[in-house]
Amino acid sequence: MSEISSPEVISSADDFAPLGLYLHVPFCASTCDFCAFYQTSPTVEGVRGFQIGIEKEMTLVTRTRPLSTVFWGGGTPGLLSARDIIRLGTLVREFNGGAAPAEWSVEMAPASVTDARLAALKEIGVTRISMGAQSFQPELLDALGRLHTREQVMRAYDRIRAADFASVNIDLMFALPGQDEAAWLADMTQAIELGPDHLSTYCLTFEEDTKLWVKLAEGKVKLDPEHEAQLYETTWERLNAAGYAQYEVANFARPGHVCRHNLNTWNMHEWIGLGPSAAGQHEGWRAANPSDLAQWQAEVARGERMTTDRVALTPELLAEDALIFGLRMTAGVDPVALARRFPSPAWTAARGVLLDLIEDELAERVDGRIRLTTRGRLLADSVGAAVMEAMDQA
Question: What CATH number does the domain containing 117 carry?
Fold first, then answer.
């Protein structure tokens, strides 16, 4: 791997590189116990102000090439009325020169799925629906503070399929309070029987300022790393056997249905962030909008955006993140190609970390790429922390 030390400079944002758009819709009917994303209750005035703010913020962005992907996250974007969906979608298409991107994802909660909303999403050009089921079992949904029922998940899925979107994803969560391996297997079996094109399976994490964090601090729920590791491996084996290829630690897809927006993000391409709390990586900067609807509206009205956590996109920063996120993907990384895209002295330190990972059997070299082994994927967060520490100190 000594060839990493003398890279050729290649731009990461040329005319052919992917460009994404992440639009944060902050409205949610309730706050789940595990959720740390910014959200607020929807009101007629709030939604109207949000739409006006998005339209204004778009005028502050320089878009030099067409959007490859669009992702509406939240919050619950599917909570918007059909009329508001069409208005927001029209703004996005106008921002993109009148065209819809090749991939357009929208997150929906089961209780928000209606035929009218789905028809509106189809009309504007949405290709991919991501539904947050989390579980099919009432007691586990209750433990997460989710308001939908198993029956609502089933009805919502049938409606989404009937609307004929190109790709459908279901989100599931494991290592939930009170969930044993049999319960998790039952949830996966139910999901597989539904037959979505894509499955995202997330291990429950305890984020600060959430209800679950408080329960953890009070000893009402406990962490069990060994149990989590077992569920990770069970997940990978079960979904692989069912025909879902793992392309990232938490993401599985049938052929042709990977989430391109996420892949472009993990590969450190550019994306534009719009809306309160949205983050972006565009035109030399990574930054976020404030996580407050009124503050975001006021800043946009003054001609300001992306004022929070603003950092320059240096080769060092991009090199580090490309390696950390790249190792989380099943395909792994080509360190030589990354060093050419993001030339940095830190690659010397990165080379040492990668060699250590291989020696410790946490990673392997295959056809010039470095990818994590099964044990390495179980320790992906620790691997990322080691990469960050080494490259930050270089």
Answer: 3.20.20.70
Q: What token pair was written down for 373?
A: 């082994």
Phi then psi for residue 105, to 5 deg, are -100, 145
Residues 120 and 181 in one domain: yes
Separation of alpha carbons 224 and 96, rounded Å: 46
Q: Cα Rg for the chain, rounded, in angstroms?
A: 21
Predicted structure pTM score? 0.89
Which regions in the chain score pLDDT beneath 50?
A: 1-13, 34, 206, 213, 216
pLDDT of residue 177: 81
**68: containing domain:** 10-265
According to the model, what pLDDT value does residue 33 have? 52
CA–CA gap between residue 72 and residue 280 (Å, rounded) = 13
- Write down the mean pLDDT value for the chain: 89
Q: How many domains does the chain divide into?
A: 2
Q: Retrieve residue 38's tokens.
A: 């910014």
User: For the segment 342-366, what is each residue's pLDDT rounded down to a tens digit?
Assistant: 999 999 999 999 999 999 999 999 9
Angle at 176 between CA 42 and CA 326, to 5 degrees: 85
